[in-house]
Amino acid sequence: MSIPNSVLEQIEVWAEEPIQLISHQHIGHFTETAVIQFRPDMQYFLKYSTDDTVDMGVEVRGLRTLNRLGCVNTPKVSYNGNRFILMDYIAKNRVGYNFFYDFGVQVAKMHEMKGDEFGLSYDNYIGPNLQSNLATKEEARSWTLFFWNKRLLPQYELAKKNGLVDIYFSKSFHKFEEIYPMILLPVENETPSLLHGDLWSGNYLVGNNGDPVLIDSAIYYGHREADLAMTSLFGGFEADFYRGYHETNPLPSDWEERQNVYMLYHMLNHMNIYGEEYKAQAMGLMNYYLS
């Protein structure tokens, strides 16, 4: 474990007592996590960023926004610094009978929280990569323009910088760029919804009372189809989730025709984090519309 002693000492000063046990340690690609216990009835989940360019306070803002609205559950953040978050520890619990239906209802209600413009008043992160939310006037009024300029294009440019774009990938991306506006045209006029922003199966937990709990948010105001598409990218959401969602806040009947556009953003991000292994999948998502 490489969480600095200075961070652990800072947490002990905040708690006004020494850490008795550090367990459930996990080293990820850009974060480390652990359960910090002061005494049997006082334990927290610690998330530490190994990337010194990532401000963890931004994630705290997102979690607190979701929690304050009351439509979805998030862990309570007790303390944080620029490189770490200390929040409620939620033990691994089993999924109950109505878990996914209730989860779908809660996400649908989160999407009923509307904004005046696309984007957000501050930037945040999608994994370790910057997610730009500060929109121009034109981008703030146009979902098509916002998603291209603030989501797809920055990830593509980062992939070029990382040496991941060859001539074939470049040709596919620019052909996709030509038809992209027509793909999103049917949903251009929907009012922006509050999105979790990174809604995959690794970012929900089963709370101690059996309720869904969302973590690792990358919030912004966008089209709710983008969140639903992410749930399909890596699986982990049962049919009852979508039934609960659609019975509460129905999507257009053709919403799945656009989900590969939104998946492409996350696949490009995975390319930029993990490298070549996600390149063929990103090509496949673009070629779905080009073939």
Summarize the structure.
This protein is of the alpha+beta class.
Report on the structure:
By secondary structure, this protein is of the alpha+beta class. It has two domains: 84 residues, 2-Layer Sandwich (Phosphorylase Kinase, domain 1), CATH 3.30.200; 192 residues, Aminoglycoside phosphotransferase (APH), C-terminal lobe (Aminoglycoside 3'-phosphotransferase, Chain: A, domain 2). The protein is built from ten helices and eleven strands.
Q: What are the SSEs and their pairings?
A:
Elements: H1 5-15, E1 21-27, E2 31-39, E3 42-49, H2 56-69, E4 77-80, E5 84-88, H3 99-111, E6 124-126, E7 129-131, H4 137-141, H5 143-161, H6 167-184, E8 193-195, E9 204-206, E10 212-214, E11 220-222, H7 225-233, H8 239-248, H9 259-274, H10 279-290
Antiparallel strand pairs: 1-2, 2-3, 3-5, 4-5, 6-7, 8-11, 9-10
